[in-house]
What does this fold into?
Amino acid sequence: MPLPPPPPTIEQAAARLAGLLTYAGGTLSDPERHDLVFETDLSLQPLVRLPAPIDTWAVDGGQAVVADARCLQLVVTRASRARWREGRCVLEEEGDLRPQLVGCGEERTAVLTYGMPVRPDAAVDIGLLRDWGEWQAVARSVEEADAGAMVLIDGDLEPDWRLPPSFLDALFARATARRVTLAGVTKHSSLARGGAPLLGQLERRAEEALGPRAMWWARLATTRPDSGPNRQILAARLDPDARFSFRVDIPAGDDAPHILGSLSALADDAAFPGYPYPLSVADRLAACPGWVRDDVWAQLEDGLDVAGVPFDVRERAFTDRHRLMERA
It folds into this structure.
């Protein structure tokens, strides 16, 4: 019986990675999405900064696992919103923390509790809980926005796959009726060409072709008609001082240069130029750092005390054995 080949070395992995990162050819792809029809020729276009939207809403979500018994978890999620008008933030809304037991069928209660339009047999996890909360916040923002407003979503314009396409169809139709623009901005895109990050390649190409301080945009792909309302996938550098470009999703029929030009007026923050500042505010509000988990855990323990659950029962259920072993 022949011996298996030796495992790859770090040096071999580095050599392969170097080849991928420095080769600018190959096919376009997104390993996380299979509903995109990519452009055959990526044309970089100069981007002109326009006045900011009269009213901008930004939505982001956060999540945390508070207690983990492996077969059963207590998780919390929330959706946060920020509103931007006339050059300043006029609303910071953290959103309520939504607790939910997940595991052993306990998560099924969330379908009714939060009105999730999913199949009866759909798996419910922390990702779906967070995503549904975000899209509910987007729908509320569309209703509360002024005509001519823009609603920004952290990530792409694609709800969790367990949510029906009819939900996004209705949301797009409502936004159109109220003259509200929807745009999704992805911080770290999985778009690739030849197995390497696409946006990094476009950034180098744009610097050579348009100059180091040029703002630019390019249409990358559209979604297939059978995957819900048609959307266009763009890349854009939204500020002359920006280190990075971002993926931006908008409805297929919308005016890309106009939307990106208006969006760029919100992306000139000195701390992180190139990323829309209202989304930075929503991201900060939605975060669930350690102190949030500790606070929820303290409330949980108070409830267990009232219910008379002994301390040793809790300890056996929730103590992380791996962490104990790592500290030894």
User: Anything to note?
Assistant: The chain has a mean pLDDT of 92. The two ends are 42 Å apart (CA to CA). The CA atoms of residues 47 and 225 lie 28 Å apart.
